Amino acid sequence: MSDSAPTSVAGEWYVYIVRASDQSLYTGITTDPERRLVEHQSGKAGAKYFRGRKAVEMVHIEKGYNRSTAASREAVIKKLSRAEKLGLIRK
After folding, report:
1. What pLDDT sits at residue 78?
2. How remote is the C-alpha of 29 from its chain's centroid?
3. Is the pLDDT confidence value at 9 over 70?
4. Cα separations in angstroms, 30 against 49, 71, 84, 85
5. Distance (Å) of CA 90 to CA 50, 57, 76, 83, 85
6. Residue 63 burial (10 A CB sphere; 0-12, 13-18, 19+)
7. How far is it, in rounded angstroms, from Cα 56 to Cα 23?
8. Structure pTM?
9. What pLDDT, in 10s, does the model give residues 35-90?
């Protein structure tokens, strides 16, 4: 993970990348990364993306966004190539 264990601040949003069991990368936003990973792993309230593959680990977290800026950053990351996403994770 590229950031220390996050502690949610009221109104603070996070952009995250999860590595799936097939080595693919899923990008999302949340106010609570730890809770969101558990939701993805449990299959309850997780993304449809994780039907047929499992959420393995959260490999990247960016914090300090509001809802709007988090959604904008998520869109930017989703447009990146896999190689660019891996470079972002390694930073």
Report:
1. 97
2. 6
3. no
4. 16, 10, 22, 19
5. 23, 15, 17, 11, 9
6. middle
7. 9
8. 0.86
9. 999 999 998 788 899 998 999 999 999 999 999 999 999 999 999 999 999 999 99
Show the tokens assigned to 47: 């993304």
Question: Collapsing DSSP states into helix, strand and coil, what is residue 91?
Answer: coil
Q: φ and ψ at 64, to 5 degrees?
A: 100, 20
Q: Give the domains, in start order, of the chain with CATH numbers.
A: 13-90 (3.40.1440.10)
Q: What is the mean pLDDT of residues 9-21?
A: 90
Confidence of residue 2 (pLDDT cuts 50, 70, 90): very low
DSSP state of 50: G
What one-letter code names the amino acid at 4?
Answer: S
Q: Position 39: which residue type?
A: E
84: its two tokens? 């660019």
Structure tokens at 77: 């990351």
